[in-house]
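TICKET: design request
STATUS: open
ATTACHED STRUCTURE:
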């Protein structure tokens, strides 16, 4: 049976060059980067080289602005909690959007229990916030705006540069969860005006369990875990050197090959969408048709359950998702699609196809060989299906 992986927004295959680069750091260059002896210094050298590679990918002014974490969720927590607690003497108001990843939404809910006030901005039918609503939500107590760069479920890209401009004008700290965006398009931290940017390795063909947080020079941030003086006192805990080296290599590849890779991926995504809409009736695109990630396609197959489609495709060796991997197992409709006003009946039938650099034309052909008969079979079984 052919195996086709179209769930790259959940995680990506680790690039062979990344694996090769990481291997020596398990049994040869295995020192603790905080140790002062030769073993430690060797590890530290490669750690700092990787820090510079991350900084180069996002065009940071200095590698000192990069702090290594365990992944996107920790980066979001450190950015949001760290900024909120560091700035609480100035105010207690935070602004976010209703379509954020749960790493952001649940962090904001936690802060509400700590006495902070949070405004959750609504979105339009494409999943984009209204900038006028953002401006009207700002008060003298607003200390942080946290809005994602691109949505993990629909691929819709947020107007981060405009948000950054508003934040700068008002003197407010701006954090963006760029976990799904970075590596899939050019990203300039200075151009977008962000003070804090979350990054994850395993979304860009790097290893799991490692990420980074960009912290603009001069930005106040309170550490969220206590321990040693690692990462210049900003994030305690022994650095994951093999993982960090893998992240650095993944960033290096993304910087060198990203533009051509994602032009190829966009062509594959466009081919898939064209065939779905021409070969399967009653489908709906969820997300913006143009302002979206080159690899992400979210489609509702009306009157069906997304889980049934996923399981049927899985039996044919095809991996897709109904949305975020972090909400897998939930029977509730996607909070993202709900915020976009998608009919719950159709939201339940949503499927996210997210491609990676290893996908091919043959993968798309195989999916479209298997998908139409699956949809036809499931609709015949559906008690709510209405043929148009």
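STATUS: resolved
RESOLUTION: sequence designed for all positions
ATTACHED SEQUENCE:
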């Amino acid at each position: 049976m052919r195996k086709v992986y179209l769930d790259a927004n959940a995680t990506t295959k680790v690039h062979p060059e990344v694996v090769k680069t990481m291997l020596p750091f398990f049994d040869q260059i295995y020192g603790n980067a905080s140790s002062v002896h030769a073993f430690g210094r060797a590890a530290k050298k490669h750690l700092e080289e990787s820090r510079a590679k991350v900084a180069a990918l996002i065009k940071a002014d200095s590698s000192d602005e990069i702090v290594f974490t365990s992944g996107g969720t920790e980066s979001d927590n450190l950015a949001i909690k760290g900024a909120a607690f560091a700035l609480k003497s100035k105010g207690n108001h935070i602004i976010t959007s209703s379509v954020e990843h749960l790493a952001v939404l649940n962090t904001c809910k936690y802060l509400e229990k700590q006495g902070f006030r949070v405004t959750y901005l609504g979105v339009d039918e494409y999943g984009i916030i209204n900038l006028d609503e953002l401006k009207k939500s700002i008060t003298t107590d607003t200390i942080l705006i946290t809005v994602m760069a691109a949505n993990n479920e629909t691929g819709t890209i947020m107007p981060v540069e405009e948000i950054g401009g508003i934040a700068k004008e008002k003197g407010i700290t701006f954090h963006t969860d760029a976990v799904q965006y970075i590596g899939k398009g050019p990203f300039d931290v200075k151009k977008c005006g962000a003070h804090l940017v979350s990054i994850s390795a395993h979304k860009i063909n790097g290893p799991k369990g490692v990420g980074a947080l960009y912290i603009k020079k001069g930005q106040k941030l309170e550490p969220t875990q206590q321990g040693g003086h690692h990462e210049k006192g900003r994030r305690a805990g022994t650095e994951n050197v093999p993982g960090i080296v893998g992240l650095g290599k993944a960033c290096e590849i993304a910087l060198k090959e990203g533009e051509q890779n994602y032009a190829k991926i966009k062509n594959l995504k466009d081919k898939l969408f064209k065939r779905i809409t021409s070969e399967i009736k009653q489908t709906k695109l969820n997300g913006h048709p143009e302002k979206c990630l080159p690899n992400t396609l979210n489609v509702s197959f009306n009157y069906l359950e997304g889980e049934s489609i996923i399981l049927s495709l899985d039996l044919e060796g095809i991996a897709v998702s109904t949305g975020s991997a972090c909400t897998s197992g939930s029977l509730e409709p996607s909070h993202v699609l709900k915020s976009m006003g998608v009919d719950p009946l159709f939201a339940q039938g949503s499927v996210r196809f997210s491609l990676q650099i290893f996908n091919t034309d043959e993968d798309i052909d195989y999916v479209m060989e298997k998908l139409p008969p699956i949809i036809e079979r499931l609709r015949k079984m559906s008690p709510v299906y209405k043929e148009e």
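CLOSING REMARK: The two ends are 34 Å apart (CA to CA). The domain at 16-253 is CATH 3.40.640.10 (Aspartate Aminotransferase; domain 2).
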